[in-house]
Amino acid sequence: MSNFIVGLTGGIGSGKTTVANQFATLGVQLVDADVVAREVVAPGTAALNVISSHFGTGILLADGSLNRALLRKKVFSNPSDKQWLNQLLHPLIREQMLQQLAAATSPYVLLVAPLLLENGLQTLVDQLLVVDVSPETQLQRTTERDKVPASQVEAIMASQCSREQRHAAATQLLDNDLPLQSLPERVAALHQIYSALAAEKLAKSPT
Questions:
Q1: Stretch 96-120: mean pLDDT, rounded?
Q2: Residue 1 pLDDT > 70
Q3: Which of 32, 128, 153, 199 could tie 112 with a disulfide, CB 3.0–4.6 Å?
Q4: In the predicted model, what is the mean pLDDT of the chain?
């Protein structure tokens, strides 16, 4: 298993997935909190049954899967529903992420989590890479990508950690306002740093 975990986070629209995929091309295994969050509510899971009991079967799509857009709309407008859902899902997501991190075999593993800081997951990581862009870039990218009004994106941004909080927590910052063609080179440089730190930690750990 990997004994070295690099956390990767950033605000909405910062380009976390693009950066994570670049690490993946270098052979780094990813544990993605968004993917895990979908897995724990897949059709047939206990969590999905509990959610449909709570909100009614109207929360499901015709194929029996969760209507994530409708659920997001419901909890965003109702704090008590949001709290209930978080209490149900966060322990399940955390447990699944820990299992996947423990099973990773690359020299280090990347934990990709949009709400890494908000959910206190920084305690799990050895290094924290923050993908950083300006608020203007976040707004433009997300409205274009998700075809949603700016007010909705601004509300999501306001619910996340501030840019200053992410900067303060980061061990490395990756400026994703820079041209995309420079990204592979900058990720490769970070990969060298993390590989060296992982090897150093492994050498120090008891056999």
A1: 94
A2: no
A3: 32
A4: 93
Sign for the CA dihedral angle at 37, 43, 49, 54 comes to positive
Radius of gyration of the chain (CA): 18
Q: Say yes or no: 83 and 143 in one domain.
A: no
HEC profile for 76-93?
A: HCCHHHHHHHHHHHHHHH
Q: Are residues 99 and 121 in the same domain?
A: no
Residues whose CB falls within 8 Å of the CB of residue 173, separated by 6 or more in sequence, listed in order: 129, 130, 132, 167
3-class SS at 134? coil
The domain in which residue 163 lies consists of 1-28+108-207
Do 92 and 75 share a domain, yes or no? yes
- H helix or E strand, kind and range, residue 112: strand 109-112
Domains: count for the chain = 2
- Please state the pTM of the whole predicted model: 0.89
